[in-house]
# Entry
Amino acid sequence: MSLRKPSPMPATAGLLFALLLTGCAAEGPFVATDYRYHQRATVAVCYNDEISTAEQAQAMAEEICRQYDRTAKLQLVQLYQCSWTAPTRATYNCVARPGEHPAPITRTNAPMRHDTPLPPE
# Structure
């Protein structure tokens, strides 16, 4: 009867998997929409509420809306609508600041031919 030494492979694979999970879980907030949605005054930000805050998502939306001389107003928060590492989706509308009347948002960039068109307003 011979005793075989256990293979170190399962422990190594488990360690590698754990490292991958911690690396992936560190994804910060990101803007999930493109300029075509921004020109319709809609910004969606995906974030992981375990490592990020709603204020960070708000700041990202504010930066996009600032380009159109507006401010971001939270419209909707949806859980599990984005990526696995950043599951929370916050949707903002770019609205005029109180007492201000900015010019209408003009479409300055035409979509590429292969882009799917946005639904009509």
